Predict the 3D structure of the following.
Amino acid sequence: MTDTPLPGTRPNTQDSSTPEQRRIRRLRRQRAMNTFEAAVMIVIIVLVLFPIGWMVATAFKSPAVVYQYTMWFEPTLENFRNIFSERWNIGKNILNSSIVAISVVIIATPLAVGAAYAFSRLMFPLKRTMFQWILLTQFIPAVAIVLPFYVMFRTLNLLDTYFALIIVNLSGVLPYAIWTIKGFIDAIPIEAEEAARIDGAGRFRVIWDIVVPMAWPGIMTAAIFCLILTWNEFLFGYLLTRQHAVPLPVGLISFVLERGTVWELVAATGIIITIPMFFFAMIIQRHFTKGMNLGAVR
Amino acid sequence: MANISFRGVTKRWGAFVGVHELHLEVADQEFLVLLGPSGCGKTTTMRMVAGLEDPSEGEIWIGEDVVNDMSPRERDVAMVFQNYGLYPHMTVRDNIGYPLKVRGTPKAEAKAMIQAAAEKVELVPFLDRKPAALSGGQRQRVALARSLVRTPRVFLMDEPLSNLDAKLRVTMRAELKHLHHELRVTTIYVTHDQMEAMTLATRVAVMNKGIIQQLDAPEVIYNDPANLFVAGFIGSPSMNLVEGRLENGGFHAGLIAVPGVGGGNRENIVLGIRPEDVTVGAPGSGQFDMEVYTVELTGESILVTARAGKTQLTAHADRHFRCEIGERVGMSFDVARTYLFDAKSEERIRL
Ligand SMILES: Nc1ncnc2c1ncn2[C@@H]1O[C@H](COP(=O)(O)OP(=O)(O)O)[C@@H](O)[C@H]1O
Ligand SMILES: [Mg+2]
């Protein structure tokens, strides 16, 4: 077969090259593309990793060399020893953050599964509107509602308590969790649930035996995201706590002193904040790919 | 054990009517087959019995109970879904055993029951697999085994053999028939395969557009169709249906004239005759001549399709009969085996 160009096709009309030549040209173009892609990737990687690298380096520097732009220094664990000392007592902040984050996850996950199931499968009045309103809350900037929350908790005498932090974080993460899990439940074939009901399972049993296992990757993802969001939350933690319930990110503020910021301690604490989240992010990634695979099964 | 009774059951979605004023009594221990083309409301009827769909009107009874407000669990039915409805996260064993687990059957007992059900549908080697690792036919058998693992008041089977290969379908059909004989559980069985309907059914309900067209024993459905739809739907190859008129008892359609079909004069009728009741022979030897349009060898016989003007007929010829496309042949009707229908109302005209 000869490839006679169709009349009216502009590109290639004068192309007398052989298929082999064209293949080589295409390969070359592809390689050029790859070089370009690689360059972009490198820029992105540097932009993302540089601050993290900087933080890691600083955390292991002794106060004397913190302000030197060198990568050649004698690493020390002194900063870590320091932040856990009586003076800074970051351990207390870790405990606070852990209690709040874990409570939020334990409360938010089952609630979100229930709500997501209802929005996905049940019929009730104003369902769409309610779901839209729940999502809308995500678009309200936290700064806009922090003051009402402050006044509310002050009135209730709940400032500087775990309870207050758990409530505000729940209100922040629940819409997101409901939305994520609903997406996964929507993807479950309804026949499996119907079959279970005929096999004798009641509504809750169906959720437990069929919906939860099948939406598990989504539930895990949502739960871990809730954990990360709560763990990293700063604004509410900053304004709603004084000394008793101060969460870890807010604890960083204590390193801002009159004589300046103690950067090496900020960096060491930063690492403590980051490491668990890093592992959770890896778990999410694994579950996400698993979720994709599960979706293909039918 | 229970009979099932539909009393004026209608299912509507907005203005669309899926099932229209269904009155149907399924006797205890009966094997009732719902037969009809795709989209005629078979699955909907089944789902209303199971409790997955609420009737818009009417009552459904199982045994002594009006089940309209009962949950699927309380109705105690087992169902095979058209698209399996398996639990993808469970092994075949757990899929089959789920009804037992939910009902709290003791472990050891359940194990034996699962094994027995798996043996019936030849699934034993696959018990530890997940549904994703099974073929369509194997999945369908899991669905079947899951419904057979316990003895419910009613079996509902929605095209349970549609995805099996021809050989297994015949085996399973026989197996189901035997099983019904053994268990004597009232069964509603949906299919669009007439062969299945004919072989399995105590009675067949032929459905179209949400309405039961005829409800009778298989042989009656075949030999005495109530209307044009049933006549055209039942039988393979399907019945010849020729539009024409009656003149002094003779049937006239274009170039065809067959005497002695009915009585009197009447316009707008449709004559039906099965291919096996049409004979083909040499030109001039029959009631009228036609030109051969196609010839198909089916093995046990030859299907000759022939035309005269706009009229087309298919005949079952003897397997030794030979003819070529374009040749002229003589055709005759066995007039005793013809059916007449009103072209407008599509109802049978009985003379
Ligand atoms: N949930 C639904 N909403 C609207 N129409 C439906 C719904 N379920 C089924 N139908 C319609 O009802 C008719 C009968 O469907 P069904 O009972 O599944 O037919 P079948 O005889 O092929 O099993 C079809 O036209 C189908 O489109
Ligand atoms: Mg169907």
